[in-house]
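Q: Got a minute? One more chain.
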Amino acid sequence: MGLVETEALVLRTYNLSDADKIVVSLTEKQGLVRGVAKGAKRLKSKFGGSLEPFSIVNITYFQKEEMELVSIRDIELRKSYFSDASKPEFLQKFSYLADLLTKFAPPHDPNERLYNMSRICLETGAVELESLDIIALYFEYWILKLGGYLPGWKHCSKCAKEFGNAETADLQLDFNLTCASCSAGRSVERIGPAERRVFNEAQNMPPGKFIVFVAKSRTEVTSVSGILKQIISRVIDREFVGETSLTA
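A: Always. Here it is, folded:
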């Protein structure tokens, strides 16, 4: 592929040797990229503070065919969230979201919608610290939707009848919803109209407006996010403790 230049979101770094680091980033043009930043640990490294997690950068790297690790030539810092990452609630939430990206985004598979969604969630989270739980739900919703794993909650999955505005539905083991007539008393839990509104409206507005829309529905936000985490756990074959996935 040769030389690639693209905007990117730095997710995390790992020590590779006494002087080098591996950088994991979500790029705008090439999806998830893992690369070697040679000399990044040296005091006078040319990379400076551009490798801090959650930084938005312009990255230039060289990629050889059939090689997953690229060679990072240059990183130009565009926006740093270093001060935000010093806040425990921000660091915990976005470390979790970065973990989801590394599991859901295939390496070197361009997905501009995923990149833009991740960036706007980061930008919104930096100014809406009291709404990080809502941003996490929004992110969970979209990472499942863009991956093709999100169930539909507007219609009964069996008879295809659209749910009424005040109708309660039954959540099934596959996370689809059924109406009372089709569920025959078999369900995991009941899903009320307020929870369905939270779920369905996440696709219709940016995170800032979504925060306003669900501001008085925090109980439903917690409930829906819990269900989305169950779907995520099934997809990646991992269980969650809080917002940390347990590796096998």
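A: The beta strands are 2-15, 21-27, 31-37, 56-63, 69-79, 169-171, 177-178, 189-191, 239-241, 244-246.
Q: Perfect, thanks.
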